[in-house]
Amino acid sequence: MFTDTVKDIDDSTVTFSEHGQYRFLSKAISNQFDSFVIGDEITIGFEYTKVNDTDTPRIDKIVMLSKTKPDIGDVNQDGKIDARDASDILKYYAENSVNTQIDQIKAQSMSYYGDLNGDGKTDAKDASDVLAIYASNSTQPSDESKVVWTETEPVEQVEYSSVYKIFDRDKYIGQTKLVFNGTVTDIKEYAVSGQYENGEKWGPSNRTIIEVAVNDVYYGETNKKTIKLFYDTSLSTRPKGSFMIETGREYFFIAKELDDNEVQNLDAAKYADLTITAGLRDGIMPVSDGIVSVYHEYFDDNETAKAEALAKDEVMDKLTDDAKAANWFMYFNKADFVKLFDELFSSRQ
Fold first, then answer.
1. For the chain, first and last CA: distance in Å?
2. For residue range 331-344, what is the model confidence (pLDDT) as tens digits?
3. How many other C-beta atoms can be found within 10 angstroms of the C-beta atom of residue 104?
4. Model pTM?
5. 277-310 CB burial, b ≥16 within 10 A, e <16
6. Minimal CB count within 10 Å: which of 146, 187, 270, 278?
7. What is the mean pLDDT of residues 218-239?
8. Confidence at residue 19, expressed as pLDDT on a 0 to 100 scale
9. 75 occurs within a structural domain
């Protein structure tokens, strides 16, 4: 793919100033050049065949052709930078990460239009930048002193490598307001932006609200049938070793009160009841076919828990794919886990 100036053009060939001459494989491809004349600067992405070193390369397939370069970030070239572009970038990143054979044209296009930060890679960071652009373009606050939450389209979750903070069990338990079991009923992504007191604007940055239908409460009290949890980033990317958050799936949640920043600066209380105590690894535990996956450091000093934990190979057929891939977890029958977790929280209050 390149941008170049048309030096010469006829029914069978096109010559570019810097990239030389190419001949058309078919009349249909030739017709795509009908609106262009010598001197036009165009962007072209194509597949071509060169039989030997003396043969003029022939253009087999045109994938884009324009006098003006589409905006960086508009990877599907529909004239808009939106969540669909972010989703396309994440899908490409996921395919590329597992060494899936990538179409040459697709790779060219993604490299050209998807590498927003110019680091030579098209990945989850670029998808996040696309969502930020989308939110910025679509949000026009009527009062810029207020925090603005703009709902964005959810995109496919992509796993990335991350270094976790040190696990502080006593701190997490001390902060906990509610431990409950529930089924995720909805997930909403928002781009949040606002303005500091000095007039400087901030954002947009991504936040998530996870809506959960409460099944059982194991610690704390609530009369709510549905609880909305604040998560301080986007679920379009998730740290390696954590669990996917999906609607219709059952989890145990460890939740705390919204902190001052979330209430005062982000205005999150309008959208959420509580916030996740720790991260996806520590504060959310998936239930799959009666088996609970729990981060091991909750029970590393508990000999009873270790004795009741199930070997991973014993429950592998009951785990979801992300739980199978996790390496830092212990596995319990749901009833055993509830008893152990109740004892853990009761003993530390």
1. 62
2. 999 999 999 999 99
3. 15
4. 0.61
5. bbbbbbbbbbbbeebbbbbbbbbeeeeebeebbe
6. 270
7. 88
8. 80
9. no
Q: 71 in a domain, yes or no?
A: no
The verdict on 239 and 335 lying in the same domain is yes
* Number of domains, the chain: 3
How many whole angstroms separate alpha carbon 233 and alpha carbon 156? Answer: 14
Q: Which one, of 269, 282, 287, 271, lies nearest residue 216 by Cα?
A: 287
Answer yes or no: are the C-beta atoms of 95 and 81 closer than 8 Å: no
- Burial label for 34, CB within 10 Å (0-12, 13-18, 19+), is exposed
**What CATH number does the domain containing 277 carry?**
2.40.50.120
Map tokens 């078919």 to a residue.
Answer: 26
> Do the domain assignments include residue 253?
yes
Q: Could you read off the pLDDT of 189-228 as tens digits, one per residue?
A: 998 888 776 677 777 888 999 999 999 999 999 999 999 9
In this model, does residue 93 exceed pLDDT 50?
Answer: yes
Domain that holds residue 30: 2-66
